[in-house]
Design a protein that fits this description.
Blueprint: E1 18-24, H1 28-39, E2 44-47, H2 63-75, H3 92-97, E3 99-101, E4 103-108, E5 120-124, E6 131-133, H4 136-149, E7 153-154, E8 161-166, E9 171-175, E10 180-188, H5 195-199, E11 215-222, E12 246-251, E13 254-260, E14 272-278, H6 290-298, H7 302-307, E15 312-313, E16 318-320, E17 325-326, E18 331-332, E19 335-337, E20 343-344, H8 351-372, H9 377-405, H10 409-437, H11 462-479, H12 484-497, E21 514-515, H13 519-531, H14 535-538
Parallel strand pairs: 1-2, 1-10, 2-7, 4-12, 5-21, 10-19
Antiparallel strand pairs: 3-6, 4-5, 8-9, 9-10, 11-14, 11-15, 11-16, 12-13, 13-14, 17-20, 18-19
Helix pairs in contact: 1-4, 1-8, 2-8, 2-10, 8-9, 9-10, 9-11, 10-11, 10-12, 11-12
């Protein structure tokens, strides 16, 4: 990829109406994509849309998300993106408005009963990571500032998009204030109500393509009690305070995610994000009004009700009785739809931010090639659209699995072990691939462009097998071919017997429900890696030339 110098003064282009690329959606995904394109010399305009604030957005990271941020920063030479990977590196205004994430927790509830401490799982974030809760108004604004700093044009009055006119050679965008923009290519990262999708005649996909059905409610609250003040923290042996991370109340047929923005000393934001997702058939008796529905739901679970006894919604509810939506197609002549314009899906387990950044990576790489050589448009755009379809399908299976696992704590317990194993190995594998790219001829990033799979970089060969095993068990439970407890027993047994799963993780032990990677575990991990670990796992953590890598490639630290 040619190295480009950002525009010295992007405001000098404000009078120009013609651009190479327009990015619709002035938020985290759109802003970082615009920053990358502008940094690489593409004439880019970032356009606000009415969809930008129309729905709840991802508000949490996991270590794998942070590794994608690091890849974007390094590959496309936008160092500011790397600050999203580490809470401590963010600008003060973003940190003060956002929360820290020291753990990811799950509390399973039975209707009418106090939460049983034996039905809890917590994964603590390793100390070298600084995961966080994104307060999206500040995080989105920061992403847009990065875009502007690298030369992307943003309308000074932030007038939203009003009309799209598609033509054979260029696309015309008309803003609400009457300003007209002429662009070669458009990336729509806004939402299902986008004028671009309407102009292209794109409707919803068949329901069968989005099998999960959810009623979703989301708002920011004040007055939410830390859960450790509802039930004593010492009931949960080894667990850290629930409010210091993001956690989920899980019950048969749904979950409530709680994300605090005021859980550190420097916080100046008293809000707490609350997102509810339930099976609309199982909870068909909930009232239509979102506030009434929320109160009726938590009233069935005493410990959840105790956390919200004094809480009040501080923002309007975002809600829909059928939340999932998916575009019937996501590409056409000179345009791509990504993120919210491609689908509206569950946002649990940090998937919204993660998939958004994965699509920024794939889309930026494709667009830079297309702008340089327009003859590549159809092949590149089709490849990106196909990759996004795979990510969406994969996300649907993960969320279907979580919904199925919610039926019984032991199944949830087993499901979460495989999910964490995937997260750990995905993070380590992507870091290994990124570092390997530093030791190949300049411009070759093929190791992180295996877009023919949702695992778009090399991973240990056991990981796809683990995911297939998990999804097979979840399918069997839904089909009635096995019970929830039977599937859980099989998953734990499989984890104990798999050679590529580090024994010290104890993922195959149902009673080991609080995961913390201590110094002692790190030492045992290094010993295991150096002795009996499979070669494709060992390559993630050592300099050993077991796969034909260069001997001088750096090691990846043992982070888990």
């Amino acid at each position: 990829m040619p190295r480009k110098t950002p525009a010295k003064n992007p405001r000098k282009r404000t009078a120009a109406a013609e651009y190479d690329v327009a990015v619709l959606g002035a938020h985290l995904t759109g802003g970082l994509l615009a920053a990358i394109l502008a940094r690489q010399g593409v004439r880019t305009v970032l356009v606000d849309t009415t969809e930008d604030q129309a729905r709840p957005a991802g508000e949490s990271t996991v270590p794998y998300t942070s590794e994608v941020f690091s890849l974007l920063a390094e590959r496309f030479e936008v160092p500011e993106i790397a600050t999203f990977a580490h809470f401590t590196d963010l600008p003060e205004e973003v940190r003060r408005a956002s929360g820290v994430k020291k753990s990811l927790g799950f509390l399973h509830h039975d209707a009418g009963r106090e939460q049983d401490a034996r039905k809890a799982v917590q994964f603590n974030v390793p100390g070298e990571h600084t995961e966080w809760h994104l307060y999206r108004p500040e995080a989105d604004a920061y992403a847009c500032r990065i875009a502007a700093a690298h030369g992307a044009h943003i309308d000074e009055v932030r007038s939203p998009l009003a009309k799209v006119a598609l033509a054979d050679d260029r696309t015309t965008l008309v803003l609400d204030n009457g300003q007209t923009l002429s662009v070669r290519y458009v990336v729509d990262a806004s939402g299902p109500g986008s004028p671009l999708l309407a102009a292209a005649g794109v409707g919803s996909a068949e329901p069968a393509r989005t099998p999960l059905r959810s009623r979703l409610l989301s708002a920011h609250f004040t007055g939410v009690r830390p859960f450790e003040s509802v039930l004593p923290q010492d009931r949960y042996r080894g667990a850290t305070a629930w409010s210091h991370g993001s956690f989920h109340h899980v019950f048969d047929g749904g979950w409530i995610q709680v994300v605090s923005f005021d859980n550190h000393d420097a916080a100046r934001n008293g809000l707490c994000s609350v997102t509810v997702s339930v099976c609309p058939e199982k909870f068909a008796d909930l009232p239509e009004d979102p506030e009434d529905a929320f109160r009726a739901l938590i009233g069935r679970y005493p410990s959840i009700a105790g956390q919200f006894v004094a809480a009040r919604a501080a923002t309007p509810w975002a809600h829909d009785t059928q939340w999932q939506w998916r575009a019937e197609r996501t590409t056409g002549p000179r345009w791509l739809a990504i993120g919210g314009a491609a689908c509206r899906a569950e946002e649990v387990l940090a998937r919204d931010v993660t998939v958004g950044m994965e699509m920024v990576h794939a889309t930026a790489a494709a667009l830079l090639r297309v702008v340089a050589d327009p003859a590549r448009e159809e092949a590149e755009f089709t490849r990106v659209a196909d990759f996004q379809d795979r990510l969406i399908d994969f996300n649907d299976r993960l969320q279907m699995g979580l919904r199925t696992a919610s039926r019984h704590f032991q199944l949830l317990n087993a499901y979460l072990r495989v999910w964490l194993l995937w997260q750990i190995l995905a993070d380590l594998s992507l870091k290994r691939a990124r570092l390997d790219c530093d030791h190949v001829p300049e411009g070759s990033w093929a190791a992180v462009e295996r877009f023919e799979s949702e695992l778009w970089f090399r991973t240990p060969e056991g990981l796809p097998r683990a995911l297939r095993q998990l999804f097979h068990q979840m399918d069997a439970v839904r089909a009635g071919r096995t019970t929830a407890t039977g599937a859980a027993r099989d998953i734990f047994s499989w984890l104990r017997g798999e050679r590529f799963v580090p024994p010290l993780y104890r993922f195959g032990e149902p009673g080991d429900r609080v995961y913390t990677f201590t110094l002692w575990r790190r030492m045992l991990m290094l010993l295991w890696v150096k002795t009996v670990a499979p070669a494709d796992f060992r390559r993630l953590l050592t300099q050993d030339n077991v796969t034909g890598r260069r001997d001088d490639a750096p090691p990846v630290t043992t982070e888990f």
